[in-house]
Design a protein that fits this description.
This is UPF0301 protein SAMN05216381_1934. The chain is an alpha+beta fold and 189 residues long. The chain contains 5 helices and 10 strands, in the order ββββαββββαβαβαα. A hairpin with a 2-residue loop joins β2 and β3.
Amino acid sequence: MKDASSSILKNHFLIAMPHMADPNFAQTVIYLIEHSDQGAMGLVINRPNGLTLADVLEQLRPDSEPAVLCQSLPIFSGGPVQTDRGFVLHPSGAQFQATLDLGELGMSTSQDVLFAIAEGNGPARHLIALGYAGWGAGQLEAELADNAWLTCPADQTILFETPYEQRLGAAAALLGIDLNLLTAQAGHA
């Protein structure tokens, strides 16, 4: 029988505390795709990397001109692991060559989802990221014990509709917290 606590943070946000020193995660909010006793995986959802879907499609299909809408679709830095690998979060239901069912959401890793989005046939709500954030067994739990992160259930409005520069504050607000009022000092009582 599976331990109910082993995936407790799956489909949650990790909200970096103001004292987060790691430049990969300072001032980030992460959507946790998986969390178990083996480790955790998530995507940073508020840090665009400067690329657009048009830039990516120019690499995948150099002989085709990307649709104009692709020029305004940002690509996010999902995390420091495998930064050349793409991930697309979207509401569940849409199936592509490589889609993982996450419950209310799906995550696709095949190129066909990018082409479908570009052609207007893909999921209307999506977040495209290169790379991911990963933790080994017990690593995330240790960071949580050190007060590096706040956690709360994920919210699709924040994930897909809130402007990226407002996502960190909006996720903290789900907990009734204004990060600007927290100290950058960490400690335990």
